[in-house]
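Researcher: Let's continue the batch. This sequence belongs to F-box domain-containing protein, and it's 191 residues. Same format as the previous ones, please.
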Amino acid sequence: MASLLEDKLFEISGQGPAPTKDFFQLVITKTLVIWRWWKISLRSEYRKTQPGEMKLPHDYYLHDKTLQHQVKVVFGENTLEYSKALCNGNFDYLPRLPDRLLLRILAFLELEEVQQLRPISRKFKKLCDSEEFWEQTVRSRCDTVNKEMECLAKEVGWKKVFFTNKLQLQKQISRRRQKEENTGNTDANVM
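Model: Same format as before. Here are the structure tokens for F-box domain-containing protein:
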């Protein structure tokens, strides 16, 4: 299963906590932990300071308490624990799957379960709110999806179509049909 993962498992970068202005980056690949830093200072003694980089195998990182402390100070406890879990081989496969495959998986879930999955990450929020997800939901749970319904969905969105009751949906389709007919008659009268 690990062969499905990309080489880069995790990457985060940012400025260190105040009063420092230094910039840090943590990259975790399948085999290495890479810690990079850039000294940012107006003081003349630091002007020629070169960026630094440390590359460690996962096992070394798990035993390097000094580097772990730096990661915790710069990026927080959650990032430290997540980085240690990755180095221990505890990969989170689900968010790494392609969107089209995740959409197929979401199709088997109840809407309550999708709602619970939504706040897990930005990727899941974006996917659960996407037009592709709601189109697939409408098509799988409605008896028929005709052309008029598709046109309405393109206009107002598949999510709104899903949550609109059938009577309201029929009214909206009827209004849309009348509007198109009136527009067609107006165009014919102009010619």
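Researcher: Any comment?
Model: The beta strands are 8-15, 23-29, 32-38, 52-57.
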